Amino acid sequence: MANKKSESKKSESSNKKSTTVWSLNKISFYLIVAMAILYLIAAIFSAVRVDVLAGLARVLMAVASAVATCVVAVLGWRYVRGKQTVWKVLYFVTLLVVLVGLVLPNILLW
């Protein structure tokens, strides 16, 4: 009787984990689709050679990169949160470098 209860608890917890992974996979898929659309629109705007549209193209590419960075940062934190402090420091330092790399070129171009 006790074995059946422990087996059912294990199967319930494994089902919850697979549901979470499926959700992350689904979010990742839709994110890559949205990024492809944004990059396609940005490429079309850049090809038109109108200054306003070229600026809008840069903004669209920056938005796509920022959204992808947010998703990757969340997944990275899930990996790092149970690790030693060195890993957490490395996470925040690299995240800061990525954010500066995303923001600084956009500020300099305006």
Which features characterize this protein?
110 residues; mainly alpha; flat
Largest sheet: none
Overall pLDDT metric:
78
Order of helices and strands: HHH
SS class = mainly alpha
Helix content: over 70%
Tell me the β content.
under 5%
Rg from alpha-carbon coordinates: 21 Å
Number of strands: 0
How far apart, in Å, are the first and last alpha carbons?
Answer: 69 Å
Q: Uncertain regions: pLDDT < 50 for 5+ in a row? A: none
Q: Shape, please?
A: flat
Topology:
Elements: H1 2-48, H2 51-80, H3 85-109
Helix pairs in contact: 1-2, 2-3
Brief summary:
The chain has 3 helices and no strands.
What does this molecule look like?
With 110 residues, this protein is mainly α. The protein has helices at residues 2-48, 51-80, 85-109. α1 packs antiparallel against α2 and α2 runs antiparallel to α3. The longest helix is centred in the first third of the chain and has 47 residues, at 2-48.
